[in-house]
Amino acid sequence: MNQQTENKKNLLPTGKIKQYFIEVYEVARFITRFFKEIFLPPYEFKEIISQCYSIGYKSLALISVTGFITGIVFTAQSRPSLADFGATSWLPSLVGIAVIRALAPLITALIAAGKTGSSIGAELGSMKVTEQIDAMEVSGTNPFKFLVGSRIVATTLMIPALTMYNGLVAMFGSYLNVHANEMTSMKSFFQDAFSSISFLDIYASVAKGIVYGFTIGVTGCYKGYNTTQGTQGVGRAANSAVVISMFLIFIEEMIIVQIVNSIR
Fold it and tell me: What pTM was estimated for this model as a whole?
């Protein structure tokens, strides 16, 4: 009996490693299927536009508030440090670099992972456990293209757009804080802010938004589309979509920063 227990303990790490590689294979096959089917007719333009509206337009209020507060708080926190060196005039440049290079894409992605990722995971998960996806297959509709493809395309398109919008709102919030303390004009503020920003910074920010959007869409769709174990599985799918998306976003952030710095 003790020998059997010991053998099971020895096999446990091997089983976990095997399960990990199976999961990686399934994710790779899921992504491959997406790229294979998204370019083949019929094209679900109507559903893509609907998802863009749901992911993009319905997130504007949350993105606006978050971006505005980010700009104000970051400026207020940076002022004392710069004031110690008599360099408060550098605030616009500092805020512009920080927001465009890092804060706007990262904050937008994290908000979208929490709002959009969980929504996609829960929606597809509930459709899976209630057999609505099976019903679509019986009716002749391709559920993968209609449900998965449209959502991944929508997140890939909308997150970069929301990133740029978040950056502009954050810059405006920063301007109000700077204007209230230093009476800097709007023209002078934005000239100083954008003087330190290159096209590489803007391209990198957009690229981050595209990568993050694709990651959020794939993670949410994969977890929702493969949900099992009823309503409990739906909750786990939504939670896993958020946690895994955020984890991958931070890893991608480190990789992209290294790539951009090497180019710079």
Answer: 0.89
